[in-house]
Every structure is written in C-alpha cells, then in structure tokens.
Amino acid sequence: MSIAIALLYLVPTVIVLVVGIVLTARARGSHGRGATLGLVGCVVLLVAALLQGAYQAFLDSLVQSGGYRMMATLAMISGLVFMVINVAGLGLLISGVVARRNGAQQPAQGWQQPYPPQPPYSQQPPPGQWPSR
After folding, report:
1. Is 6 helix (H, G, I), strand (E, B) or coil?
2. Model-level pTM?
C-alpha cells in the first residue's frame, strides 16, 4: 500500500517535468542557452524525483533489513543528497529563466532621436520686405 501511495505522489511531478523537458527541448532554437539550462534543470529534477520515489518505495524493506539505527543514518545521508540534487535542479531552472535569449538586442547607449530630423521650416521675410508680384 505504501508503494502505491509513494508512486501516486510521484506521478504529477514526473508529468510536469516531462512536459518541461519537451517544451524546453523544442524552445532551444529560439531561446538558446536559457532553454538548454531549463532542460538540464528539468532532467536533474526528474532524476531526483525518481530517486526519491524509489527510496520511498523501498523504505519498508530497508527498515526491516537494517533496523532503525541504520535507517537514521541512511535517512540523513539520503536527505542531504536529495537536497543537493533539488537545489542544483532549481538553480539551473532559475538561471535558465534569467539567461538572455539568442538575438536579444543590447540596450541603446545614450539618447537617440526617436524620429528622423524634420526639414527646416522656411522663414517668412520681415514685414515690408515682401516679394513684389
């Protein structure tokens, strides 16, 4: 029963990460480095989720084979490993979000005139100097 519950909690995470892998793989051409970082982040998080699911599925047999003393040590080590993997995956996802896209224009330096210059207006001559007809 506990294996089924562990896998039930794992299914939505796996679905979201697989969709993320597909979307970022398709966006690599237009988004470049950011999409690649997001893709690697999704893969790392998927591996972490699968490892955590396997750990939860075999938790009962680990407790029965080694006892609670070994289980405490194993829980501490596995918790640390899962934390490092999850932090690395999230870090890659965040860096993928903030990475520049391919072909992004650099911001203009200084002020630039928004429109082309207008031709000068012709001035009228002062009064009394009108051209004669």
Report:
1. helix
2. 0.69
The 10s digit of each residue's pLDDT in 46-88 is 999 999 988 888 877 877 777 777 888 888 999 999 999 999 9
- Helical H runs in 58-132? 59-98
Contacts by residues 48-55 (CB-CB < 8 Å, ≥ 24 positions apart): 48/82, 48/85, 48/86, 48/89, 49/10, 49/13, 49/14, 49/17, 50/10, 50/14, 51/82, 51/85, 52/10, 52/82, 53/6, 53/7, 53/9, 53/10, 55/82
Please say whether the beta carbons of 90 and 45 come within 8 A. yes
Work out the number of other CB atoms within 10 angstroms of the CB of residue 42: 24
Q: How far apart are the two ends of the chain, measured CA to CA in Å?
A: 107
